[in-house]
Design brief:
The complex is a heterodimer of chains A (801) and B (55). With 801 residues, chain A is an alpha+beta fold. Chain A has 25 helices and 28 strands. In chain A, β19 and β20 form a beta hairpin. In chain A, α7 packs antiparallel against α11, α11 packs parallel to α14 and α12 runs antiparallel to α13. Chain B is 67% helix and 0% strand. Chain B contains three helices and no strands. Classes of the chains: A alpha+beta (801), B mainly alpha (55).
């Protein structure tokens, strides 16, 4: 049976709610539609089919109370004047044309909003609003209501500031392009005239104008190469920018010499052209994924404000001001900001971000909860025992193992450029010696010509463009790399460590499985009637599960909640116990010894019936992917924060050769990576969540897996969308090809170099020849790089949407 | 011949004008977002009910 799709969010509808002949999956979606309909914003639904963000798990309006606090507002609001406040939000839900349209028409819903502007790729919206007509809190509530809940986090706004476009780079490219094209044009008369004397007085004019135009290229556009070469030399190592800087300087020096001595017109056109192409290459490679953040620490996970109790009153204040001993209030779905002691009943912690353990844990009054846990259920009060910066989870970031940063500078291109420089100097030297004996007049022209022609620019162009292309192709298949050096690092990987929960398994779709004696329909109805009343997430899972089997409900006469244990209830002639193992033991119900699994136990009329257990669902294609990786020669490991329930299942998927480690805390994972690296292995860590944060940082390549609009991704080198985990072997293979492409193209560029070198060593390099060789080699390199990466991507079925 | 001098000076100045326009556009943030404007231009000012029927 096909279920109808929600008009708003496109989800399958279990229970159908209709309005104006349209179908909605839940009240939340319907209410959003009503709001948009009332304000004449239904074009939202015309631009894209089912564009909405599911409004399930409707939000609590009190969640944003902290935004009324002045200190917090000051942190968020970027610009303030009498009738205008400017604020920028990060909205990870933005995904389509309709999103942009709706967000830019917010002023139709609330006249207090003056203007709103979205940046699609950064997933940001900038809102200008009238603070007297709409408060910041109301604005955020409105956004959250229509499905775009802003991510507001401790330290979040600093991160927004960091994402500024590198304008300096664009200025450099613009100026280099302008100077290059004009110099080229002014050089044409000389290339095409049979006799330069024809040009007469114009010639010095052209030449000096060229010289003038080349100055901004040398001093401004090319400054990056000089600075990088200089810092490299000071650290006593020759990076690729060193020979390039040398070539630029030699070209310019010789050109100035020729112009002043009136012996020629120099190679200023080639010089500015090379700088222009190389700058474009760098810009192409540095394309970043603006909507992602790769350098998050714990501050991006914690809320900005916190609700606390002061003399019995609920107050809000910035999280950073939170003191030891204060009482904070945590609502359903909120994160625990600091290690604390539970003061009230009903704490139910989802530690999946911290430990990887999927099922929520009940924590009794007086026990400690750790920062990073998420409260499921009702409102609780906590007494803070450690300041935010010193809690268990944040200490991960202060781990000394993380301090030795990865050396990302040492690209394999750099050693090559060292050989290149050595060969270059040998040729230049032998050329100089040859001409010393044959014709000393030719020493200087020949040696400088060698240095000009054999600049490793083509090598740099090859590398930057190829990595740029590969980054884009990987991005299209939803692996977003932090930068080009990640691709290189991926090439040298020999060991891959997987996390289980959320990486190999799907975070959201844990499936319930019933184990035990069959239950009659009447019994199922009774169970659903009981679980329906409870807010406990496991009960809600059961309700959902039974919903799918189309189980009805009945009247329950008597419900008794046992705190921390479960529920005792009477429905008709059935006496039902639903809850933990302890609950059943309390009622002296005989249990089969063998059953030790965690889950929800069911007993009816004093007899144990069975239990509902949570089964992780493995992502599709895991087996094939693992097999492919093993064929490719990778050593695989698995680290899980979860208990070993799943061991047999995993061993079946991964094969018996793969070491499986369970009950690993974040620090264990970090240490394990260190242990592997000490054996000289290059380790790639694939994981998600805070519990892998340390390991992701420590590994040579850390890939964070994410399912839900990149909400929670710890610091990493790359972000992979959950659905693509099964493609990992393909993606790795493709990244490996990048190096092959570079080698192939580099052979081509060596051929160009040899042609140029032939003329250079004979002291016959004319400016025109240089000016022809330079663009031809650059353009052929760029197009070949694009072509090869396209062919490889297609060959490996790298997805192109 | 001297007219060529003049022409070249003018042409370089025109080109410099475009360069300045580019630098200005970068400075004022027009290069910050190179994707959303392509979506935004597709929006109609207001979709009336008549339009819907034509569909």
């Amino acid at each position: 049976m096909t279920k109808p799709h929600c008009y708003h969010c496109g989800a399958d509808c279990d229970e159908v709610i209709t309005l104006q002949e349209k179908v909605f999956c839940c009240e939340g979606c319907k209410m959003v539609f009503q709001l948009l309909d009332e304000n004449g914003l239904c074009q939202y639904y015309d631009l894209t089919n089912m564009p909405g963000v599911s409004a399930k798990g409707s939000f609590l309006s009190s969640k944003y109370d902290y935004l009324d606090n002045q200190a917090i507002q000051d942190q968020l609001v970027q610009f303030k004047s009498e009738g205008q406040h400017h604020v920028v939000f990060y909205l990870p839900q933005i995904h389509c044309v309709s999103c942009v349209w709706l967000l830019e028409n917010l002023h139709k819903i609330n006249p207090g909003i003056i203007q709103s502007q979205t940046q699609f790729e950064k997933k940001e919206v900038k809102v200008i609003y009238h603070p007297q007509k709409i408060s910041l809190k109301e604005l955020v509530q409105l956004l959250a209501f229509v499905g775009y809940e802003p991510m507001i986090h401790l330290g979040g706004n600093e991160w927004l500031q960091k994402k500024k476009v590198n304008k300096q780079q664009l200025y450099k490219i613009g100026i280099a392009g302008f100077c290059f094209s004009n110099i080229m044009m002014l050089s044409f008369p000389e290339y095409f005239s049979n006799d330069i004397r024809e040009l007469g007085n114009l010639r010095p004019f052209f030449i000096y104008l060229n010289l003038l135009l080349s100055l901004p290229v040398l001093f401004f556009s090319a400054s990056g190469f000089f600075i990088s070469a200089y810092t490299g030399l000071r650290q006593k190592w020759l990076n690729i920018d060193a020979p390039i800087a040398l070539a630029i300087m030699v070209t310019f020096g010789r050109s100035v010499y020729e112009i002043i001595t009136q012996t020629g017109s120099g190679y200023l056109d080639s010089m500015s052209g090379i700088v222009f192409f190389m700058l474009i290459g760098r810009w192409f490679q540095d394309k970043s994924y603006d909507s992602f953040s790769f350098d998050r620490d714990y501050t991006s996970f914690f809320p900005l404000g916190v609700c606390f109790l002061k003399e019995g009153q609920e107050m809000n204040k910035p999280l950073s001001d939170l003191q030891k001993g204060e009482i904070v209030i945590i609502r359903n779905g909120e994160m625990i900001p600091a290690d604390a002691i539970v003061q009230t009943e009903g704490a139910l912690m989802d530690y999946s971000f911290v430990s990887g353990e999927n099922a929520p844990i009940e924590i009794l009054k007086g026990n400690v909860v750790y920062a990073g846990g998420i409260q499921k259920g009702r409102l609780i009060q906590l007494e803070v025992v450690k300041p935010v910066g010193q809690s268990y989870i944040t200490e991960l970031w202060n781990n000394p193992l993380l301090n030795n940063k990865k050396n990302i500078e040492k690209s394999f291109v750099h050693p090559w450029s060292q050989y290149f420089t050595i060969v270059l100097f040998t040729i230049a030297l032998s050329c100089g010696i040859y001409w010393y004996f044959v014709n000393p007049h030719h020493i200087l022209p020949a040696v400088t010509a060698v240095l000009i022609v054999a600049c490793p620019c083509s090598l740099l162009l090859t590398v930057t463009f190829t990595y740029g292309n590969v980054l884009r192709w990987l991005g299209k298949s939803k692996l977003y790399c932090k930068n080009a050096s990640v691709i290189e690092a991926m090439d040298s990987i020999d060991t891959i460590v997987f996390d289980k929960t959320g990486t190999l398994t799907n975070h959201d779709s844990a499936q319930l499985e019933y184990v035990g004696k069959a239950l009659s329909n009447a019994e199922l109805i009774a169970i659903k009637s009981i679980t329906k009343e409870s807010l406990h997430p496991l009960s809600q899972f059961i309700t959902q599960h039974l919903n799918q089997q189309h189980i009805g409900v009945t009247k329950v006469e008597h419900i008794e909640n046992k705190v921390g244990l479960g529920t005792y209830a009477k429905a008709g002639d059935l006496e039902i116990l639903i809850g933990s193992r302890k609950l059943l033991q309390l009622y002296n119900i005989g249990l089969e010894e063998a059953i030790q699994t965690s889950g929800v136990y069911i007993a009816i009329n004093g007899i144990y019936k069975g239990l509902y257990k949570m089964n992780h669902q493995y992502r599709k294609g895991m087996g094939e992917m693992i097999e492919a990786l093993q064929v490719m020669g990778y050593e695989l490991h698995l680290l899980s924060g979860d208990h070993s329930n799943e061991k047999e299942n995993l061993q079946r998927i991964l094969g018996s050769a793969v070491p499986l480690l369970f009950e690993q805390n974040p620090e264990d994972k970090l240490n394990y990576i260190q242990f592997l690296q000490n054996q000289g292995k290059k380790v790639m860590m694939v994981g998600d969540g805070l519990n892998d944060a340390g390991a992701l940082q420590k590994s040579d390549v850390g890939i964070a897996v994410t399912d839900q609009s990149h909400l929670f991704t710890p610091a990493s080198d790359g972000i992979l969308e959950g659905e693509q985990v099964s493609q990992l072997s393909h993606l790795l293979l493709f990244a490996k090809k990048a190096k092959r492409i570079i080698v192939l193209i580099f052979i081509l560029s060596i051929m160009y170099n040899m042609v140029g070198m032939y003329f250079a060593t004979r002291a016959q390099l004319s400016p025109m020849l240089a000016a022809i060789l330079m663009p031809i080699s650059s353009i052929s390199i760029v197009s070949l790089s694009a072509l090869l990466s396209f062919l490889y991507a297609r060959g490996l079925r790298i997805k192109h949407d | 011949m001297s007219v060529i001098l003049l022409l070249i000076v003018v042409s370089v100045m025109v080109a410099a004008g475009f360069l300045l326009a580019f630098l200005w556009s970068v400075k004022t943030g027009q290069m910050d977002d190179d994707y959303t404007p392509s979506i935004r231009m597709l929006f109609d000012d207001e979709l009336t009910h008549k339009d819907k029927k034509i569909k």
